[in-house]
């Protein structure tokens, strides 16, 4: 493959045109308007997750008022929306904000090398016409947290060897898959499984959600935009207020669950019990073994999950898989689930950095070996930021704090005539590692050896909540545990 290059140097290159990359681009062009930036996207379209995932009913697992941008509020009359609506919102926002013209589609970043001598990143980028080299002073990774190329392999005995039906992973849903009249078993109990069940039940003969252990499920009224606020205030103002109310609601819910786990458990389980069909027991199907928010609470808009159970089109089984036969799943409780199709909704495979081969002076670095400075930069890695969302709130709020922090840092560097910045632990300081995502979910536990970690003190600590983190991003120290280098004369 022919390789071409250019000596032109960009001020900032952002990798990824999903919700993280678009947010970063907005803040860069707004706060550093004279900076030259590019946004590189490996796919043909904008949207990231919302352009990739195609499984039936794909939707957000948090409300769109906080998942959308604060600078361009979500203005549809529903809190949780489908993937197509989210992708269209991102496209419209990028065009309206002038970001679209900065995007280079079908530009997949393969490698990035930092030169200490030149104080530049050199990116190797794969395009339709060959590989090119691009240069930038600062690199922002808006590549999300999961692997776009490979799913998390489900550890199910005999699935690939014995089962003769259709096996599907939600991340790679076939475009023309027909499951009409099929017996479908969804393996998993997270947000994806809870989204899939009511949507598959519309066509399948029957859908079973098979889980090893249950999760907390909360029904919400999905209609927004009809309150007295919307009758009194201009549309844009009213939806901004909706965003603030949803932010506070999630924070209050999360902290209440943490402070009063037994009361929270009773409230959540009590609401579920009222929506179950007669004869369906709470235990073991809807009584989680963990405390609320040790794993994420799953939302079902307008209770569509429970409606499917009420109609008899679907049911839940709680057991471990013992073995697979050609047309059924054998459980450790002695039951056998007949199946024409198995959907492995068991989580996503973590991948920070989108498989970009990152080197410093041609020496490979492992991102998982690094502590994260303010959950936005990496220990001993110059001029590089990555976008990471919350586990107890929407992804976008976490990205927002990182964007504010990074742009403030870039302005500081410009003012002081610095060419590079490196997060660095104080010499001789002993840091205790903490997970960057403190969730008890199996797929998160499996990923701990492959993602950066936080520390237990100072700017190395993980995030707490949006309002605290936003204050730190805007007004906290911009120099602690950072090493700056001046522009060479």
From TrEMBL:
<dbReference type="InterPro" id="IPR051820">
    <property type="entry name" value="FAD-binding_MO"/>
</dbReference>
<keyword id="KW-0503">Monooxygenase</keyword>
<dbReference type="Pfam" id="PF13738">
    <property type="entry name" value="Pyr_redox_3"/>
</dbReference>
<dbReference type="GO" id="GO:0004497">
    <property type="term" value="F:monooxygenase activity"/>
</dbReference>
<keyword id="KW-0285">Flavoprotein</keyword>
<keyword id="KW-0560">Oxidoreductase</keyword>
<keyword id="KW-0521">NADP</keyword>
<protein>
    <recommendedName>
        <fullName>FAD-containing monooxygenase EthA</fullName>
    </recommendedName>
</protein>
<keyword id="KW-0274">FAD</keyword>
<dbReference type="InterPro" id="IPR036188">
    <property type="entry name" value="FAD/NAD-bd_sf"/>
</dbReference>
């Amino acid at each position: 493959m022919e390789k071409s290059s250019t000596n032109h140097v960009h001020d900032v290159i952002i990798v990824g045109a999903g919700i993280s990359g678009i947010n970063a681009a907005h803040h860069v062009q707004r706060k550093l308007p004279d900076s030259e930036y590019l946004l590189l996207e490996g796919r043909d379209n904008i949207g990231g997750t919302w352009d990739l995932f195609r499984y039936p009913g794909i939707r957000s697992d948090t409300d769109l008022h906080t998942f959308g941008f604060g600078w361009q509020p979500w203005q549809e009359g529903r809190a949780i929306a489908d993937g197509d609506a989210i992708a269209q919102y991102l496209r419209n926002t990028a065009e309206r904000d002038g970001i679209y013209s900065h995007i280079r589609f079908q530009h997949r970043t393969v490698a990035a090398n930092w030169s200490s001598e030149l104080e530049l990143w050199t990116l190797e980028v794969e395009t339709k016409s060959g590989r090119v080299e691009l240069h930038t002073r600062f690199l922002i990774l808006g590549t999300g947290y999961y692997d776009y190329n490979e799913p998390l392999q489900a550890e199910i005995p005999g699935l690939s060897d014995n089962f003769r039906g259709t096996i599907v992973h939600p991340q790679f849903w076939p475009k023309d898959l027909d499951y009409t009249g099929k017996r479908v078993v969804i393996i998993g109990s997270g947000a994806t499984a809870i989204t899939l069940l009511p949507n598959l039940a519309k066509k399948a003969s029957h859908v079973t959600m098979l889980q090893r252990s249950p999760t907390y499920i909360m029904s919400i009224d999905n209609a927004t935009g009809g309150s007295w606020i919307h009758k009194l205030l201009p549309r844009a103002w009213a939806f901004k207020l909706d965003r603030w109310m949803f932010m506070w609601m999630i924070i209050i819910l999360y902290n209440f669950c943490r402070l009063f786990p037994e009361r929270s458990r009773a409230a959540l389980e009590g609401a579920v019990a009222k929506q179950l069909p007669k004869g369906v027991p709470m235990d073991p199907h809807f009584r989680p073994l963990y405390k609320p928010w040790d794993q994420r609470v799953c939302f079902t808009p307008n209770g569509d999950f429970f409606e499917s159970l009420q109609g008899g089109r679907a049911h839940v089984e709680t057991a471990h898989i013992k073995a697979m036969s050609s047309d059924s799943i054998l459980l450790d409780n002695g039951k056998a689930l007949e199946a024409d199709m198995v959907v492995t909704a068991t989580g996503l495979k973590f991948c920070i950095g989108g498989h970009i081969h990152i080197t410093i002076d041609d020496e490979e670095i492992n991102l998982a070996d690094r502590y994260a400075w303010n959950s936005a930069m990496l220990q001993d890695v110059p001029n590089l930021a990555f976008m990471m969302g919350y586990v107890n709130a929407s992804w976008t709020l976490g990205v927002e704090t990182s964007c504010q922090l990074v742009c403030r840092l870039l302005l500081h560097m410009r003012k002081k005539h610095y060419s590079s910045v490196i997060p660095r632990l104080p010499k001789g300081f002993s840091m205790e590692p903490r997970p960057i995502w403190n969730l008890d979910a199996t797929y998160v536990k499996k990923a701990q050896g492959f993602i950066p970690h936080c520390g237990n003190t100072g700017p190395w600590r993980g995030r707490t909540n949006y309002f605290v983190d936003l204050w730190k991003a805007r007004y906290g120290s911009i120099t602690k545990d950072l090493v700056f280098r001046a522009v060479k004369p």
